[in-house]
Amino acid sequence: MLIARAGILILFLFYSITSLGNPGPVGINRHHHFADVLGTKALKKYCRKQIPHLALMSIRSKENLVLNHSRNACFIILDEFATGSGPVVRYFFKDHAYTNQLIKGPGFRWVLQQTISFIASPDSIIHVQAYKNLFYSFSPLPLKPKTWRFAISQHHKTLKQGNLPQFILGSFSITVDLLSNDLTRFTITNYMSRRSLFLHTGPIVQRPQPLGTTKQVITIVLNKREIYALLYP
């Protein structure tokens, strides 16, 4: 995924320099349209190689894979993003395979590290409010030494673990809420957009266009025993 993204970015930058910038058929500059076509073809080809007959699958079959198979869910999400098909918003919960894999990754572990002292505190029902809208940055942008060090570390941990949902999700916003003395709800929100694919360059497009923005909302309710098990495996 990283290699494909890097290759697309290189061609995109080359065409950005050499293009005259005439409007494309979707109302954006020609070099942006060129990058869109390239990105769409690359993603479709890759996803459909991973899941044979993906293009011919029924909606029901796709939904079954999304809910029960973490790896397949990732490729279906990417294929729908590339083609402008499928739901604009996808919801995942604790019992979904995609979620179970994601919470074992470095991103969710970072969230727990930032909030564990408040979750475990007797008066955390008050203090946890300050931790709403945390943002986990998986991207090396902006180009700052501290940002790069953290991003490289997170990418290395994700690669070592082979956590595909973390790669698909990338950076995300999260809200932490205490439901009781034992239960905590984590709500992750992520937008997959054309700009995120091309490392925050060019315009954003909307559905039903290919590479139109999609949203993933992941809701996870954990008790303290489960939180400690994730944080201290």
How much helical structure, as a percent, in the residues? 40-55%
Low confidence ranges:
1-27
Query: Secondary-structure element sequence?
Result: HHHHEHHHEHHEEHEH
- Assign an overall shape: globular
User: How far is it from the N-terminal to the C-terminal residue, by CA?
Assistant: 28 Å
Please count the beta strands (DSSP E, at least 2 residues each).
Answer: 5
Task: Write a structural description.
With 233 residues, the chain is α+β, with helices and mostly antiparallel strands. It has one domain. Helices cover 52% and strands 15% of the residues. The protein contains eleven helices and five strands, in the order ααααβαααβααββαβα. Strand 3 and strand 4 form a beta hairpin. Helix 1 runs antiparallel to helix 2 and helix 6 crosses helix 11. The longest helix has 21 residues. 28% of the residues are buried. The N terminus is likely disordered.
Summarize the structure.
This protein is an alpha+beta fold. The chain has eleven helices and five strands, in the order H-H-H-H-E-H-H-H-E-H-H-E-E-H-E-H. 52% of the residues lie in helices and 15% in strands.
